[in-house]
Amino acid sequence: MELIVLWDIDHTLIENAGVSKEIYAAAFTGLSGKEPMGPARTEGRTDRLIMRDMFHRNGVAEPDWAAVEEALTAAGAARLSELSRRGTALPGVREILKEASARSAWVSSVLTGNIAANARVKVSAFGLDSLLDLRVGAYGADALQRPDLVAVARERAQRLRGAQGGVPVVIVGDTPRDVEAAIATGSEIIAVASGVHSAEELAAAGAQRVLPDLMDTARVLGILETFAAS
Ligand SMILES: [Mg+2]
């Protein structure tokens, strides 16, 4: 059975060890010429929203998105080796991505607030890029609000992979925003409490399947197969 699995990146697939916030800060400084007053507020927001919020809170006029994306891309590219050194792929991730990518009727990609270039940096830093179809999926430049990324990913899966219109979509993510994106779009959700949000918070946001992490490959695969068959 067909299935579109969309993995969130930060705190779901990888731990970025603070490098991600350094990317936002560097992009902000590059564009505004000053240090931000505080760290970027991320937690499942898209890069468009994160940077808009940062400019707003620092009292700086928001530049054109093209300039912001260029600054984020440069800041991300400059930190690939730093991310490899300090960060890590989370436990079980490599195994479950291998299993998902081995199923030819499944599309396994990302749904992330990161712009595409930095999504690639983040998964490549840990050798996960070959286990995902990054052509499809949806990224932080594709929409302001996370729920709107789901339709983008579905359209790409249809156009580039020939997925059928009614194929179930499963989002795997670590924040209430991932859960909300799934609920708002009629998608399934597997929430993982591997970020800052507890299992209770994720359940309160509406997730019926909450796992502590992705270590139990057979269990995660079992849940995904349930959605594929439904
Ligand atoms: Mg996340």
Automatic annotation (TrEMBL):
Top-rank taxon, per record: Bacteria
Any one of the GO BP annotations: DNA repair
Species of the source: Streptomyces pratensis (strain ATCC 33331 / IAF-45CD)
UniProt entry tagged with the keyword Nucleotide-binding: no
InterPro entries on file: HAD-like_hydrolase_sf (IPR050155), HAD-like_sf (IPR036412), HAD_sf (IPR023214), PGP-like_dom2 (IPR023198)
Keywords per UniProt: Hydrolase
UniProt-recorded name of the protein: Haloacid dehalogenase domain protein hydrolase
Database matches in SUPFAM superfamilies: HAD-like
Pfam families cross-referenced by the UniProt entry: HAD
GO molecular function: phosphoglycolate phosphatase activity
